Structure formats: C-alpha cells, structure tokens
C-alpha cells in the first residue's frame, strides 16, 4: 500500500499524505474505532470538522492509534457559521480541547458562507476575520497549516487580498463527474493544494455503467478508479468510510489511468447524489 506513504508538500514545507480518511457521517461513538483501525492499516491523514460532531472520537482514535503523533496529519474545520475573529479564536481552542491534541496539522474555514446561506450572501469581511484568527493560531504553533474549504475563486481572492499567510489548502468537492478544472488550476497557480472530498461522489457513481466498465478494464473497483482519478489530478483524496475492508481497498491503487481515460473522467458530468442531494455541498445551495 505504497500510496499511504506518499506525500505532497504544502507551500510552507509541511508534508501531507496524499490519501486520507474522511470522517463525515461517522458518529462520535464510532469515530475512535474507525480512526484507530485506519491508523493500524497504515493511514496517516485523518480529516474531521467541528460540524461533523465527532472531534472527540477522532481525537481518541488518534491518541490511541499506537503511532507517534508527529507521524499523523490531523485536519479539522472551523464551523461555517463562524464569521468573526473572537468566536473563531475561541472555536480553534475548543477544537484542540475536544480533540485532546496540543496542535492540529491543518485547520480550514469549512465554507465561505454559513450552510443555511450556502453560495448566498456576502461574508467577505467575516471570512477575513475568521482567517485572521487562523493566522494567529498558526503563528502560535497551534496549527501547522491553514486553509479553506468550498472556496470559489472570488472567495480565495478576498482572502489573498489581505492575508499575511496564504491559504495552503482548499478542500473541494472533486470527483469523476464533478471536476472544477478552472478552480483547481487557479489553486495550483497560487500554490494552494486542493483536497478532494467525496471522491466517490458519496457512492452514487457506483451506479454509473460507463465508469463501471472503465474500472473493469483496469481490473479495479469503481471506488479505486475514482480515488486514483483524484490523485492523478494532483489532489489529496479523502474517501470516507468506517469499514476496514473499504479502507484497505481504497488504498490499493497500484495502477495508473491513461491520459485518454483521465480526459473521459474529467469531462464526465454526473452530479446525482441521491438522498444526499439535500446537503448544500451537493445541491450548490
């Protein structure tokens, strides 16, 4: 499982494993076991968020995973509703307390807008204030790197106009069927690494016959093809699972997708998320 030992280097020199474990929808009571199991399998990149409600369990899994803390890369996210400096500062400290860690390796602003107004109003000033809180926690050594999530170019431009620390990461919905190529290129041009969440399209892509046929040609599963696709885009891939067999399978990626097939997957338009379409990140609002 060599992919589990491969890393990218962020703009500040911090190394981040290319493949991580997403923990959305893993409840707090199950998170510790899921994270500890992933670490035992070889995962070193664990992603959570205040909004997931499982930071306590994730932290327990990290502390009890039997691997030195410095070998792990732990990310969390500032709640999307927090758009002022004081609340952001308090929430950063609260995450560290809940996780039971003295630092996290990456903290992101979860969304440029609160979830109940996703892609809605103007929160430019609030985002700059939340970012200032992240910058200060970064300088204080509480956060080894800082970034954003679900930020479009205009949202990034707002931060870049006034920041003293450039975002090192933008975590985005990226999968075969939804590839924001221009935004990924913009991030690359600004030395911002993209992380791909929901690389398996929250499971709906398993029902796509064209993708299934392509996976068959490579002798791999649809999830393996989809995760490999996001890695070959140059992103960190964060498939979510609490299933140990899926964790192992998701890391068995010893194959390469051809340029022609990458083009086919990049041009694919498939944004049906089934029952999960109610979530703002999938509906776009």
3D structure, described in words:
It is a single chain. The protein is of the alpha/beta class. Helix content is 40%, strand content 13%. The protein has eleven helices and ten strands. The chain has helices spanning 28-41, 55-63, 85-99, 124-139, 153-162, 181-189, 209-218, 222-232, 244-250, 259-267, 280-283, and strands spanning 7-9, 15-17, 21-22, 45-47, 73-78, 106-109, 146-149, 169-173, 193-197, 236-238. An eight-stranded parallel β-sheet has the order 3-4-5-6-7-8-9-10. A two-stranded antiparallel sheet has the order 1-2. It is globular. The model has no long low-confidence stretch (mean pLDDT 94).
Number of DSSP E strands? 10
Give the C-alpha Rg. 18 Å
Q: H/E series, N to C?
A: EEEHEHEHEHEHEHEHHEHHH
Give the number of helices. 11
Strand percentage lies at: 5-15%
- Low-confidence regions: none
- As a percent range, the share of helical residues equals 40-55%
- Basic shape: globular
Q: Roughly how many Å apart are the termini? A: 38 Å
For the biggest sheet, the summary is: 8 strands, parallel
Find the structural class using helix and strand composition.
alpha/beta
Average pLDDT: 94
Which sequence of strands runs across the widest sheet? 3-4-5-6-7-8-9-10
Short structural description:
The chain has 285 residues and is α/β, with parallel strands linked by helices. The chain is 40% helix and 13% strand.
């Amino acid at each position: 499982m060599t992919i589990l030992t491969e890393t990218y280097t962020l703009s500040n020199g911090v190394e981040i494993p290319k493949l991580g474990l997403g923990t959305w929808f893993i409840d707090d009571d199950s998170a510790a076991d899921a994270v500890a199991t992933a670490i035992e399998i070889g995962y070193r990149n664990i992603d959570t968020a205040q909004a997931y409600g499982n930071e306590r369990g994730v932290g327990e899994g990290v502390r009890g995973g039997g691997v030195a803390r410095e070998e792990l890369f732990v990310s969390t996210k500032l709640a999307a509703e927090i758009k002022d400096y004081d609340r952001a500062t308090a929430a950063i400290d609260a995450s560290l307390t809940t996780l039971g860690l003295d630092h996290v390796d990456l903290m992101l602003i979860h969304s440029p807008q609160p979830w109940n107004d996703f892609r809605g109003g103007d929160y430019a000033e609030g985002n700059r204030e939340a970012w200032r809180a992240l910058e200060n926690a970064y300088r204080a050594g509480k956060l080894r790197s800082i970034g954003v999530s679900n930020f479009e170019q205009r949202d990034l431009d707002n931060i870049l106009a006034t920041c003293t620390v450039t975002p090192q990461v933008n975590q985005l919905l990226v999968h075969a069927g939804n590839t924001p190529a221009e935004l990924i290129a913009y991030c690359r041009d600004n030395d911002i690494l993209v992380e791909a969440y929901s690389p398996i399209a929250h499971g709906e892509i398993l029902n796509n016959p064209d993708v299934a046929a392509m996976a068959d040609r490579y002798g791999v599963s649809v999830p393996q093809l989809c995760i490999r696709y996001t890695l070959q885009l140059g992103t960190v891939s964060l498939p979510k699972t609490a299933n140990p067999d899926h964790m192992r399978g998701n890391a068995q990626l010893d194959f390469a997708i051809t340029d022609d097939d990458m083009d086919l997957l990049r041009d694919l338009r498939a944004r049906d998320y089934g029952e999960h379409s109610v979530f703002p990140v999938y509906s776009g609002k």
